[in-house]
C-alpha cells in the first residue's frame, strides 16, 4: 500500500473511544445516515434487494474489482444480485456468491418494522471519519490510508421474520447495525458497527422449521464466492458460529472500541484472504479445523459470555461533575437473572485478554466525552459539518499478517473470577438467632458502637467462608493458601479500639522461603518470630497480599442481588452487574449498577453507601493518613445497617470483596435485604456533603453516622434521613508484632451524586472523598490542590504536595511521563518484567502479567514455569485392569483415570467380558445356519436357498419344458436352426404356454389357438387382418402394487432420515454411505417429519409429524399404506424411540413439555413426565438395561436426564458444559450414551451412569439428530443440510451425503437386517 499519502490526524472523539475501552458505541455515534444524507431506501419486505448501485470508483474485493453493489434485506451486501433467500439465508458460510455480511439472518421489514438505507458518500467528514477508523485498526499498514469513496448501508430497527398469527403482536426485538466500505483505487476496508443495545435478537428461525423451536445464529463475515473453475470454494472469513458469539459483537472489538470491527477486504497487492484488524488484542492463533475438503482456522475470540455496561456519569443540573474514562472488566459471574424482563449487561471483556491503547502516544487520559460531542441524530446533522477537532498523531503499532485459508470463529470460555459460596436469603425479617459471623470469627462481632448485635439469619447471613477464615484470593502474582497452610485464626467476642481481634497459633511457622508466593508481585516478604508478612513496595498501596499502584485509576467489577420490600411491594433481583471506576489521585469514585427493577432502583437512590465504600477504599489521603485499601487489601466484608426516618424502614447491605482478577480489578459481591421507603418515579435525590468518623481496631473498622437527603420533582420537595451503622472486617497480618491502632480518621465526602436512568436501566452513584484527621470547626484555611483534588496531574499520576499551594506530579508505577501527561509502560516490550522462561508476558495498563505457555505451569513465585508432567495413561502403560484386548477396550480420560468397555460381540462390565452368543438370539434368517465365534458370528443360507444369511430366498429350480417349447425346438431342429420366412414356428410365452395368436412365419396369415395349441375354428384371417384372440391361460392372481410414492428398500443395513415432507433411504456398504443409491422411501405431503425410529420386529418405520400433530407408521413391505396411530393430545411431537422388546414407543412433546409412552398401536398411552421440562427434544431407549434417556435444550439450564422405562428413578445425568443437545443415541454394543450439541459444537459420549465422559468431535456445524452404527456416528446437520458420518474412535469426519433437494434434515435412524428378540413384553418387565 502506498506509504506517501498524507495521514489525517486522529480525531479526539475516536481517541476517546480507543482509550475508554468500556465505552460502548452508541446509536448516535454511527456514521450519519438518513434520507437527508442522500440515502436510498430499500422497499419494505421479507426478501427485498436493491437495484444495482453504480459506484463512482470500482471497489476491490480481494483480487477482483466491481462497479456496482446490491443491498439485501437480510443483512447482506453483494456484488451481484441475490438468489432466492432459501438458497443462502439458512446456510453456513461460504456462500456461492460474493457476500459482505454484517448480520446475515432472515430479516423482515414488512409492516413498518425498520428500514434499510444505503448510499455512496464522498463527503470530507465521512471520508475523514472512515479514514480514522481504518488507521486505528491497521496502524502499521494503513496509517496513511485516505479513502476517496465510501459506501454505507444501515439496517435501522429491523425485525426478524415471524409467521403471522391471528391476534399475535410482532416481537419488539429490533436490531440496528451498519456497514461502511472505505476504499480508493488500491485498497478496500470494511467497518462493521454494532451500537450498544443495537442487537436484540441474535438469530432467526428457519421458515420451514414449523413447530420445531430452533434458531440459527446470524452469520457475520465475508465470502468471495465460488472460484472461476466452479469446482472449489473461494476464500471466506466467518466471525460467528454460536448465539453467544453474535451477542458479543457489540461488546467486543478487534480494534479496541466495543462494537466496532475493521477488516481489510480488497487490495491491488496480493491478499489471500480477508484480514481482520488486531489492534484491540491479538486474535487467536489459527489452529487446524475439521479434516474436511477445506481446512479451517479460527480467528475471533467471540464465544465467551460477556456483558456490557456504561460508566458514564452526568448530572444535567450540575456542571462540576466530571466524566471518567471507562475500562472493560469481566464480571465474576457470567450470567444475570432478574425477575422482571430485563437482560443483564456488564462491562465487556477484553478481546484476547486485555486491550491496551494502540499506541503509547495515546495513553494519556482525557475526560470521557459526553454524548453531545458526537454527531447528533443522523437525520438532523449538517452534511458539511466536521465533528473532528484538534490534530493528533496517527496511530502506530503492529498488526498480524493476513490469515490464509477459510476462517471460522474460535470458541472461548468467558473468564470468571473467584466466587464465594452464596447463601440464599429466603426471608425479609431479620432472625434473632445470633449475630452474623465475620471473617475469622468463631463467635461473633459487635459491629456498632452500641451493644446491639448485627442482625443475621436467613435474611442477613454471613456471605463469607466457613470456619471463620477469609480466603486468600489470588491476584496477579498471588497464590492462595491451600490445605493445612492456613493459619489458625481466633476472634474475641467484641471489637473495640483496644481489643485483640485475631490470634494466631504459631506451632507450624510459615516462612517467606516457602510462602512468598502469597504476596503480591509488587510486595516484599518479611519473616517474623511467628510467621511472615507481606508489605507493598514503595509507590504501591495495599496490605501486601494485594498491592495497586498509587495514583493510578482503579476499577471494580461485581454482582448485586437483593430481596427488598419497596414500601409494601416485594422485589427480587439476582446477580445484576456492578462496575466502579475510581480516580484515586483526586478521590472521585463512580459506581454503576445495571438492571435493578425500576421500583427498587428508584428507592435505592439515597443509599450512597453502596458506592461510598469504594470512596473510602481509595480516598484521597491527607498527610499521615491512609485510605481503606491500605488496610484491607482486596479481601474483606463490609456490613451496613440503615434505618430510614420517619418510617423506620430498615435495610442491610453486605459487600464481600473477593480479591483481584487477572487485570487487577477488584471483584465485589453485594447483597441488599430489608425494606426501603418507596420513591415516586422521576423524583431526583440530592444528598448534601457529609463527614464520617471511622474507628479502627486490629482487623475491623466501624463507623456510625446520619444523613439527610431531599427528593425533588419540579416544585415538589420531600425531606428524609437515615442512620447508618457500618462494619468492615478484614484479615490483618499480626506476625510483625503489635501495631499501633490507627487513630480515628475522618472521611470527608465533598460531592455526592445519585441518578437512576430508567431508559438505560442503570443506577449511578458518584462521590468525591478525602481521608484525614478529625476536624473541628475553625476558620477556613488554604488547602493544597493535592488534598482537594483541584490539581492538574494526570489521572495516572500521584500528586505530591509542596509548601503552600505548590505541588508536583509523578506518574504512577507502570506509567511514564512528566506527571501531567502519563502513558503506559509496556514492560513486555521493554524487557522490564520478571516473567521467566517458558512464560509469556502480557502487558496491562500500568502493569503486566505472566502466563505459562501451553504444557507448562507456574511454580510458587508465579513467574517461573515448569513443564507439566503428563498424567499417566493406564491404557498405554498396561496398568489398567480391563478385560483382554480382544474383548474390551480401555478408554483413557486424560487425567490418569480410565474406564473399560466391552467390544461389540461381548457383554459385561468392561473389566470382565463374555462372548455374546448371537446364534441364541436368532439373528440369522430362519432358513440360515448360525455359526457363533468369539466376539462375532456368521450366517449361511441353507442348501436350496440364496442370500447373505440375514435374508435367504429359495433357489430357483429348472421347470420341465412344455408342449409348445418341445414342438418349437423340434421344428427348429428340422429347419436346420433358422426357419425361412414362410415356415411356421410355434410362438410360446415366458411360461411356455402357446400364445393365443399364431402366425405363419412372417406373413399376415394368422389364427387363434387354444391352450393346447389347437386351431380355433373360424379364426383364420385374411391378409392384413389380425384376428382377436382371447388368452389361453387364466391370468395369475394379482397382488396390490406398491404406492407410487413408496419405494421398497433393499435388503441390508441402511439409514432412514426425515426431510420435511419425506423420509429418505440411504444404504450403507459396511459403514460407507452409498450416496448413488439414495432415494425417497416415502412422500408425505403436508407433513413435517421430525422424529423417526424403526421397529425391527415387524419391519415398520415410525415417525412424528409436527405439522399434523400426529404419530404414524408404515411397513417397509411393498404396497404398505401409512397408518396414523396417535392423532390427539399432541402439540409438537419431536423425538421418538421404539422399544421393540416390550413393543412400546416413547416420545417428547416440546409444546406440551411432556414425555409420554404408549403401545406400538397407540394404546395404553401414559404421560411419564410433565414437570421440570422446558424444551425436551431427543429421546433414546436402552431396552437391555431398561433405561430411558432424553435431552432438554432449555437455554437457561440445558440437561440430559434418565429414568427407568416405567418413569421411576428420574435424575439428571449431564448438565455441565452443554448448550443445545439436539441429538441423542444409545449404542447397545459399546454401552455408551452419546449426544450431538448444536451449542457447544461437540459430539460427546458417557457411560449410562454419567461417568467416563469424553468428546469424540469438537467442531460440528449444527447437528440435529444422531444415530450410532458399528464404529461410526451418523448425524443430520442443519448447516450442511445433509447426513455426516464420524468415526467413533478417531472423531474424524469421514463422509457426507447432501440430498439434491436442499432443505433441513431432522431425525435419523439405522435399519438393521436382523432383530434380537426379547423374552418378555410387559411395560415393566426385564429381559
Automatic annotation (TrEMBL):
PROSITE patterns: ASX_HYDROXYL, EGF_2, EGF_3, EGF_CA, LDLRB, NIDO, NIDOGEN_G2, THYROGLOBULIN_1_1. The gene is NID2. Keywords: Basement membrane, Calcium, Cell adhesion, Disulfide bond, EGF-like domain, Extracellular matrix, Glycoprotein, Repeat, Secreted, Signal. Its main location: secreted. Residues 274-308, 341-485, 1019-1042 are annotated as: Disordered. Residues 552-781 form the Nidogen G2 beta-barrel domain. Residues 1-24 form the signal peptide. Disulfide bonds join 999-1006. This is Nidogen 2. Residues 782-823, 824-866, 871-914, 915-951 form the EGF-like domain.
Amino acid at each position: 500500500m502506498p506509504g506517501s499519502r498524507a495521514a489525517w490526524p486522529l480525531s479526539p472523539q475516536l481517541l476517546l473511544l480507543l482509550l475508554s475501552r468500556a465505552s460502548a458505541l452508541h446509536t448516535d455515534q454511527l456514521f450519519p445516515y438518513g434520507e437527508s444524507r442522500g440515502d436510498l431506501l430499500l422497499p419494505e419486505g421479507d426478501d427485498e434487494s436493491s437495484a444495482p448501485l453504480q459506484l463512482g470508483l470500482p471497489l476491490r474485493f480481494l483480487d477482483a474489482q466491481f462497479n456496482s453493489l446490491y443491498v439485501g434485506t437480510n443483512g447482506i451486501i453483494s456484488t451481484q444480485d441475490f438468489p432466492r433467500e432459501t438458497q443462502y439465508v439458512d446456510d453456513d458460510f461460504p456462500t456461492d456468491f460474493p457476500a459482505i455480511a454484517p448480520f446475515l439472518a432472515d430479516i423482515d421489514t414488512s409492516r413498518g418494522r425498520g428500514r434499510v438505507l444505503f448510499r455512496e458518500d464522498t463527503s470530507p467528514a465521512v471520508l475523514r471519519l472512515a479514514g480514522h477508523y481504518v488507521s486505528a485498526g491497521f496502524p502499521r499498514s494503513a496509517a496513511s490510508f485516505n479513502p476517496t469513496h465510501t459506501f454505507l448501508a444501515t439496517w435501522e430497527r429491523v425485525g426478524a421474520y415471524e409467521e403471522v398469527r391471528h391476534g399475535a403482536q410482532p416481537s419488539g426485538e429490533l436490531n440496528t447495525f451498519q456497514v461502511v466500505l472505505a476504499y480508493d483505487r488500491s485498497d478496500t476496508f470494511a467497518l462493521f458497527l454494532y451500537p450498544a443495545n443495537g442487537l436484540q435478537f441474535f438469530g432467526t428461525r428457519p421458515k420451514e422449521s414449523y413447530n420445531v423451536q430452533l434458531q440459527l445464529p446470524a452469520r457475520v463475515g465475508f465470502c468471495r464466492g465460488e472460484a472461476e473453475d466452479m469446482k472449489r470454494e473461494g476464500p471466506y472469513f466467518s466471525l460467528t458460529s454460536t448465539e453467544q458469539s453474535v451477542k458479543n459483537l457489540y461488546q467486543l472489538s478487534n480494534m479496541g472500541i466495543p462494537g466496532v470491527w475493521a477488516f481489510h477486504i480488497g487490495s491491488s497487492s496480493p491478499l489471500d484472504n480477508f484480514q481482520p484488524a488486531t489492534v484491540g488484542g491479538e486474535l487467536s492463533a489459527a489452529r487446524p479445523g475439521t479434516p474436511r475438503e477445506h481446512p479451517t482456522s479460527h480467528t475471533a475470540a467471540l464465544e465467551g459470555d460477556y456483558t456490557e455496561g456504561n460508566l458514564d456519569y452526568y448530572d444535567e443540573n450540575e456542571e462540576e461533575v466530571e466524566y471518567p474514562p471507562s475500562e472493560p472488566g469481566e464480571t465474576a459471574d457470567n450470567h444475570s437473572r432478574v425477575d422482571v424482563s430485563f437482560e443483564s449487561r456488564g462491562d465487556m471483556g477484553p478481546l484476547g485478554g486485555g486491550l491496551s491503547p494502540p499506541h503509547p502516544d495515546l495513553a494519556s487520559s482525557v475526560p470521557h466525552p459526553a454524548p453531545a460531542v458526537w454527531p447528533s441524530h443522523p437525520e438532523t446533522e449538517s452534511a458539511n459539518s466536521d465533528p473532528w477537532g484538534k490534530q493528533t498523531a496517527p496511530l502506530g503499532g503492529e498488526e498480524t499478517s493476513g490469515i490464509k485459508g477459510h476462517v471460522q470463529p474460535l470458541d472461548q470460555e468467558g473468564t470468571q473470577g473467584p466466587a464465594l459460596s452464596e447463601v440464599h436469603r429466603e426471608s425479609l425479617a431479620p432472625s434473632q438467632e445470633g449475630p452474623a459471623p465475620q471473617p475469622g470469627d468463631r463467635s461473633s462481632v459487635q459491629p456498632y458502637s452500641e451493644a446491639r448485635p448485627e442482625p443475621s439469619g436467613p435474611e442477613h447471613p454471613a456471605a463469607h467462608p466457613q470456619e471463620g477464615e477469609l480466603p486468600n484470593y489470588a491476584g496477579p502474582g498471588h497464590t492462595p493458601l491451600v490445605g493445612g497452610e492456613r493459619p489458625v485464626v481466633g476472634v474475641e467476642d467484641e471489637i473495640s479500639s483496644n481489643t485483640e481481634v485475631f490470634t494466631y497459633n504459631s506451632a507450624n511457622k510459615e516462612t517467606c522461603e516457602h510462602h512468598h508466593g502469597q504476596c503480591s508481585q509488587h510486595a516484599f516478604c518479611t519473616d517474623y518470630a511467628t510467621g511472615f508478612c507481606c508489605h507493598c513496595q514503595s509507590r504501591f498501596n495495599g496490605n501486601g497480599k494485594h498491592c495497586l499502584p498509587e495514583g493510578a485509576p482503579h476499577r471494580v467489577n461485581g454482582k448485586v442481588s437483593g430481596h427488598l420490600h419497596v414500601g409494601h411491594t416485594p422485589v427480587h433481583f439476582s446477580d445484576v452487574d456492578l462496575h466502579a471506576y475510581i480516580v484515586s489521585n483526586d478521590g472521585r469514585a463512580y459506581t454503576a449498577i445495571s438492571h435493578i427493577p425500576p421500583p427498587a432502583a428508584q428507592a435505592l437512590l439515597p443509599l450512597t453507601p453502596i458506592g461510598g465504600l469504594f470512596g473510602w477504599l481509595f480516598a484521597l489521603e491527607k498527610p499521615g493518613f491512609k485510605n481503606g485499601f491500605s488496610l484491607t487489601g482486596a479481601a474483606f466484608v463490609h456490613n451496613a445497617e440503615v434505618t430510614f426516618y420517619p418510617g423506620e424502614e430498615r435495610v442491610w447491605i453486605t459487600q464481600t470483596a473477593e480479591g483481584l482478577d487477572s487485570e487487577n480489578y477488584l471483584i465485589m459481591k453485594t447483597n441488599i435485604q430489608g425494606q426501603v421507603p418507596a420513591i415516586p418515579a422521576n423524583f431526583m435525590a440530592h444528598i448534601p456533603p457529609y463527614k464520617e468518623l471511622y474507628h479502627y481496631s486490629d482487623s475491623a473498622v466501624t463507623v456510625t453516622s446520619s444523613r439527610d437527603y431531599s427528593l425533588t420533582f419540579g416544585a415538589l420537595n420531600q425531606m428524609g434521613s437515615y442512620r447508618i451503622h457500618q462494619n468492615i472486617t478484614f484479615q490483618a497480618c499480626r506476625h510483625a508484632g503489635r501495631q499501633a491502632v490507627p487513630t480515628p480518621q475522618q472521611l470527608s465526602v465533598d460531592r455526592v451524586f445519585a441518578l437512576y436512568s430508567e431508559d438505560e436501566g442503570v443506577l449511578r452513584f458518584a462521590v468525591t472523598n478525602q481521608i484525614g484527621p478529625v476536624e473541628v470547626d475553625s476558620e477556613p484555611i488554604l488547602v493544597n490542590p493535592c488534598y482537594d483534588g483541584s490539581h492538574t496531574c494526570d489521572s495516572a499520576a500521584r500528586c505530591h504536595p509542596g509548601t503552600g499551594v505548590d505541588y508536583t506530579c509523578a506518574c504512577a508505577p507502570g506509567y511514564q511521563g512528566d506527571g501531567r501527561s502519563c502513558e503506559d509502560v509496556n514492560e513486555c516490550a521493554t524487557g522490564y518484567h520478571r516473567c521467566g522462561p517458558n512464560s509469556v508476558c502480557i502487558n496491562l495498563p500500568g502493569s503486566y502479567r505472566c502466563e505459562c505457555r501451553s504444557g507448562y505451569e507456574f511454580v510458587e513465585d508465579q513467574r517461573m514455569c515448569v513443564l507439566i508432567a503428563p498424567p499417566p495413561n493406564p491404557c498405554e502403560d498396561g496398568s489398567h485392569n480391563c478385560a483382554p484386548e480382544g474383548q474390551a477396550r480401555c478408554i483413557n480420560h486424560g487425567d490418569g483415570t480410565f474406564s473399560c468397555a466391552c467390544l461389540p460381540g461381548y457383554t459385561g462390565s468392561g473389566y470382565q467380558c463374555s462372548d455374546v452368543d448371537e446364534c441364541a438370539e436368532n439373528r440369522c434368517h430362519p432358513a440360515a445356519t448360525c455359526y457363533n465365534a468369539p466376539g462375532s458370528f456368521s450366517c449361511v443360507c441353507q442348501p436350496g436357498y440364496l442370500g447373505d444369511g440375514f435374508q435367504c430366498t429359495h433357489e430357483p429350480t429348472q421347470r420341465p419344458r412344455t408342449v409348445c417349447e418341445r414342438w418349437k425346438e423340434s421344428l427348429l431342429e428340422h429347419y436346420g436352426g433358422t426357419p425361412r420366412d414362410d415356415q411356421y414356428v410355434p410362438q410360446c410365452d415366458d411360461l411356455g404356454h402357446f400364445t393365443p395368436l399364431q402366425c405363419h412365419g412372417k406373413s399376415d396369415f394368422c389364427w387363434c389357438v387354444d391352450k393346447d395349441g389347437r386351431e380355433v375354428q373360424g379364426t383364420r384371417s385374411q391378409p392384413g387382418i389380425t384376428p382377436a384372440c382371447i388368452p389361453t391361460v387364466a391370468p395369475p392372481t394379482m397382488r396390490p402394487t406398491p404406492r407410487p410414492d413408496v419405494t421398497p428398500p433393499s435388503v441390508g443395513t441402511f439409514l432412514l432420515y426425515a426431510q420435511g415432507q419425506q423420509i429418505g433411504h440411504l444404504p450403507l456398504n459396511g459403514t460407507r454411505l452409498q450416496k448413488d443409491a439414495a432415494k425417497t422411501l416415502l412422500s408425505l405431503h403436508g407433513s413435517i417429519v421430525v422424529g423417526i425410529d424403526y421397529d425391527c420386529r415387524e419391519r415398520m418405520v415410525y415417525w412424528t409429524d409436527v405439522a399434523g400433530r400426529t404419530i404414524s407408521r408404515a411397513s417397509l413391505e411393498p404396497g404398505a399404506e401409512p397408518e396414523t396411530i396417535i392423532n390427539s393430545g399432541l402439540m409438537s411431537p419431536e423425538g421418538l424411540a421404539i422399544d421393540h422388546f416390550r413393543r412400546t414407543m416413547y416420545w417428547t412433546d416440546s409444546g406440551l413439555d411432556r414425555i409420554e409412552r404408549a403401545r406400538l398401536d397407540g394404546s395404553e398411552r401414559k404421560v411419564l413426565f410433565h414437570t421440570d421440562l422446558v424444551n425436551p427434544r431427543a429421546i433414546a431407549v436402552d431396552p437391555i438395561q431398561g433405561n430411558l434417556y432424553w435431552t432438554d435444550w432449555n437455554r437457561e439450564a440445558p440437561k440430559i436426564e434418565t429414568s427407568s422405562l416405567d418413569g421411576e428413578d428420574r435424575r439428571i445425568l449431564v448438565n455441565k458444559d452443554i448448550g443445545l443437545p439436539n441429538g441423542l443415541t444409545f449404542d447397545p454394543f459399546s454401552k455408551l450414551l452419546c449426544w450431538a450439541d448444536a451449542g457447544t459444537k461437540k459430539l460427546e459420549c458417557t457411560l449410562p451412569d454419567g461417568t467416563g465422559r469424553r468428546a469424540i468431535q469438537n467442531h460440528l456445524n449444527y447437528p440435529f439428530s444422531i444415530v450410532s452404527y458399528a464404529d461410526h456416528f451418523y448425524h443430520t446437520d442443519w448447516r450442511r443440510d445433509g447426513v455426516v458420518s464420524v468415526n467413533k474412535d478417531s472423531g474424524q469426519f469421514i463422509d457426507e451425503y447432501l440430498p439434491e433437494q436442499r432443505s433441513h434434515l431432522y431425525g435419523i435412524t439405522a435399519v438393521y437386517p436382523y432383530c434380537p428378540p426379547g423374552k418378555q413384553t410387559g411395560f415393566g418387565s426385564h429381559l
